[in-house]
Design a protein that fits this description.
Helix content is 52%, strand content 6%. The protein has 128 residues and is mainly alpha-helical. The longest helix is centred in the first third of the chain and has 24 residues, at 23-46.
Amino acid sequence: MSTRKLKAVKSSGNVFLDLGFSPEEAVVLAMRADLMARIRLLIERQQWTQAAAAVALGISQSRVSDLIRGKWDKFSLDMLLTLATKAGLQPRLRLINSRKGRASHRRVIGVCTPAVSGRLVRANRDSR
């Protein structure tokens, strides 16, 4: 059995970039993964069964299963945005300047409830 030590490498903050995807594709994949995780979390918090989630989201139970299992390759970013909206979330895209023209590893999409969204909009208006 080998006792070879593996060298730890600092992450960029985007696992898809670390796996070798192009910066542009890594950003889209990270957004999709983040949206899927947030929708899964909402399903858990609502204590929905897969059947109840299917009704709420307007998709089949098998699609809910794919979502819960994290099969990100089966969902486009458009579809995930639609599902988040149907679930009562309000997705917002935030663009930020990145260093050296490369895709940022920071989260560039946020999902919040309508109440939180309203508070953010009011706070933004008040700070002008």
